[in-house]
Amino acid sequence: MPRTICVLLLALALAACGARDQAKRYPIEGDVKALDANAKTATIAAGQIADWMAPMTMEYKVKPDSEFEKLHVGDHIQATVVVNDLAYYVTDVKVTAKSNSADQPR
Q1: 55-78 pLDDT, tens digit each
Q2: How many domains does the chain have?
């Protein structure tokens, strides 16, 4: 009997470890406020992000580089934020409204 309990506890512990490694994906929509080309980050004023984040302006890493290249300050975007514990980044960027000025800084 004790061996069965140990096996069950071990199975539960392994399942919990595996679940923690899986990233969650959430839709994000907002306005690009600033870009840092060296760090490949965008400051985005976003609305509510599902049950993960209240509406706020914050900096997001953008992956891969080709997604970052789509962005300009002032763009309104829809994208996906990928969250894995404390690490997060934005990907699958779709610019839904371009900035008013083509010469906006990157």
Answers
A1: 999 999 999 999 999 999 999 999
A2: 1
